[in-house]
Amino acid sequence: MAVCKCTGENVDSAQDLQLMELLDHYRNYDGGLIPVLQEAQSIYGYLPSEALEKISQELRIPFSEVFGVVTFYAQFHLKPRGRNIIRVCLGTACHVLGGSRIFKSIQDVLGVGNGETTEDLRYTLESVACIGACGLAPCIMINDDTHGRLVPGDMKKILEQYE
Ligand code: FES
Fold first, then answer.
1. 112-135: string of b/e by CB count within 10 Å (b at 16+)?
2. Do 88 and 66 sit in the same domain of this protein?
3. Looking at ligand 1, which atom is closest to the CA of residue 131?
4. Into how many domains does the chain fold?
């Protein structure tokens, strides 16, 4: 248990304390909701509902509005994400050269579907439209690394490189 210096309120974790300090900083700014949500997401790794409630209360913005913004923008996540984000390209060039077979082989290795995270929080799997590396099709990104000219049999070995 920690005590917030700004409000004197008891908070459960260092992350909650950081959130309170963040909210204190933005309390009197108009239009601060998006930067607050971005920073809150970098504190927790995602946006837990308790954090959204706190943001709504402290910034005096209706919860429905906060939730509406979070669900509108793809950059915000309501569930914990994996340490490694896998983006499988299903754009035209990758699709034509077997992108969906790559996607299926990753799903088979990890046992999760599109937009899902493995239970150990090691991987999150997502499909994307084009990652700008069409010459390497079919390709994927894992975090900031691009892997191209893939065949389904490559995937297990590639995934194992990411702890
Ligand atoms: S279509 Fe896959 S990288 Fe462009």
1. beeebbbeeeebbbbbeeebebbe
2. no
3. 3
4. 2
Nearest residue to 52 (alpha-carbon basis) of 73, 32, 42, 37 = 37
Expressed in angstroms and rounded, the spacing between residue 139 Cα and the centre of ligand 1 is 7
> Residue 7's pLDDT is what?
56
- Asked if residue 47 belongs to a domain, the reply is yes
Residue with tokens 């974790």: 13
Whole-model pTM: value is: 0.78
Say whether both 121 and 61 belong to one domain: no
In this predicted structure, what is the pLDDT of residue 27?
85
Same domain, 88 and 152: yes
Q: Are residues 95 and 154 in the same domain?
A: yes
Q: Which residues have any ligand 1 atom within 6 Å of their CB?
A: 89, 91-94, 130-134, 137, 139
Choose one of 101, 130, 140, 145 to mutate for the ligand 1 pocket test, by most ligand atoms within 8 angstroms of C-beta: 130
Tell me which residue range forms the domain holding 31: 2-72
